[in-house]
UniProtKB/TrEMBL annotation:
It comes from Staphylococcus microti. Its cofactor is pyridoxal 5'-phosphate. PANTHER family: HTH-TYPE TRANSCRIPTIONAL REGULATORY PROTEIN GABR. Transmembrane segments: none annotated. The keyword Phosphoprotein does not apply. This is GntR family transcriptional regulator.
Length: 467
């Protein structure tokens, strides 16, 4: 911390004396704090021990420090310091701790999971393996693409659960969907431009804007994105959530999927980025295969995460690249990657390898379905008040308010009733609705609190409530 400028005319010992003195006055060196020995400080600053000794002697004479025989040099007590002119004292403002805003009592938070059923026991077991066993390879940087063991487990899981045909060599691991999208945009043809669903997760257009990539929005219909909306533009990349559109929850029909794949296959620089959001949790009908499983022209880039299926804090997202893009990724120099800690990758790969992941998903699917059913049962009792959409899959659905209140009034009532819920308008960019709609996330609500949450939300919307 003591910078010495040997080019100055001022003697080096005086520079060192002033640096230490000012650090004591400003409180950077505390009372009774031990200073480095003369030898250590001399070696560190590349000056002689005599220089350090002269600086320390001056500080002792003025009462800034004191020495103990065979112990070293220490900062003097504050009340023994000589008076210093006021202008010498640093005017640095104290650091204020930013307090996290507490959640509302009735929180329909998106992205939250059921914490009571997190597989702590299994994660402790595999964490113990990762750290207690001599896993010396895990402390190395590892493959920028992600550990092979985890990529292998993801490949097998995607084939059995989503029909995705891939090899570990096509899978890349990152810490978020946003990072994956950043990587993918570096692999796409030059001068590419995006078509985005409206509504959409805001972080997607935000990332494209930061990377100066052009994009436009097209509306999502009741059966997903329509190719007719895409054909009128020259953009070559479509970002889509076909299995459970975020946030309105519709599922893209097979007819529209086939049309979109045909559109992508008509030009070598067209691609579809399939974000398989919330696909693990489908409650009605047969599981719908991923769009990638229908792709024979290798135009689909598949993206997903473990944020819902395990936990948001795991910070593992993954993408399946077409083989030609995977080869391009592997040959790229200085491309992003390698951001997920290897011990975390090991824990998740062991969790999957032991079939505990599948059991966990089956268990959580039942729990989330129970929560969803309770909410739907309550809301369905008031058909003139609200309408439910997009509840077949995932951990949220959309409620449309039909009692004549506008969005602003609804939000004011929610706040008055200590309710936290997001309006759909927060995810809309161009195609807005006049009827207020809200996205109801239920994953993080404890089962015993579901009824109270539903009751409070309905109570806040009663027409005889004061506005």
């Amino acid at each position: 911390m003591f910078h010495i400028d040997k080019s100055q005319k001022q003697p080096i010992y005086m520079q060192l004396y002033e640096k230490i003195r000012d650090s004591i006055i400003n409180g950077q060196l505390q009372e009774d704090e031990k200073l480095p020995s003369k030898r250590h400080l001399g070696d560190y600053l590349s000056v002689s021990q005599t220089t350090v000794e002269n600086a320390y002697a001056q500080l002792i004479d003025e009462g800034y420090i004191y020495s103990k025989q065979r112990s070293g040099f220490f900062v003097s007590a504050i009340d023994t310091l000589p008076l210093i002119p006021q202008q010498r004292v640093s005017s640095v403002s104290p650091i204020r701790r930013v307090e996290t805003q507490p959640l509302s009592r009735y929180s329909f938070q998106l992205g939250a999971i059921d914490k009571a059923h997190f597989p702590f026991e299994q994660f402790r077991k595999y964490a113990k393996e990762a750290f207690d066993t001599l896993q010396d390879t895990l402390i190395e940087s590892g493959d920028v693409q992600g550990d092979f063991m985890l990529r292998q487990q993801i490949s097998q899981y995607l084939f059995h659960s989503r029909g995705v045909e891939t090899t570990p060599e096509q899978v890349i691991i990152a810490s978020s969907t946003e990072q994956l999208l950043s990587i993918i945009t570096d692999l796409l043809p030059e001068n590419h431009s995006f078509i985005l669903e409206d509504p959409i997760y805001p972080q997607v257009p935000q990332l494209l804007s930061r990377k100066h990539i052009s994009y436009r929005f097209v509306p999502v219909c009741h059966d997903g994105l329509h190719v007719e909306h895409i054909d009128q533009y020259d953009d070559n990349i479509v970002y889509i959530t076909p299995s459970h559109q975020f946030p309105i929850g519709v599922t893209m029909t097979l007819q529209n999927r086939i049309k979109l794949l045909k559109w992508a296959s008509q030009h070598p620089e067209r691609y579809i980025i399939e974000d398989d959001y919330d696909s693990e949790f489908r409650y009605e009908g047969k599981p719908i295969p991923a769009l990638q499983s229908l792709d024979k022209a290798e135009r689909v880039i598949y993206v997903s995460t473990f944020s819902k299926s395990i936990a948001p804090s795991i910070r593992i997202a993954y993408a399946v690249l077409p083989r030609h893009l995977a080869k391009l990724y592997q040959n790229k120099i200085n491309i992003e990657g390698g951001t997920v800690p290897r011990h975390t990758q090991y824990i998740v790969s062991r969790f999957m390898e032991s079939n505990q992941f599948e059991r966990h998903l089956n268990r959580m699917r039942k729990i989330y379905r129970q929560k969803r059913d309770v909410l739907i049962e309550y809301f369905s009792q008031y058909p003139t008040l609200c309408q439910i959409n997009g509840a077949q899959t995932g951990m949220h659905f959309v409620v449309t308010i039909q009692n004549g209140l506008n969005e602003q009034t609804c939000m004011a009532r929610f706040k008055a009733h200590d309710i936290d819920v997001q309006p759909l308008s927060q995810y809309l960019f161009q195609h807005h609705n006049t009827t207020p709609q809200f996205v109801i996330g239920f994953g993080g609500i404890p089962m015993e609190d579901i009824e109270a949450h539903a009751t409070q939300l309905l109570k806040s919307l009663e027409i005889n409530e004061s506005s």
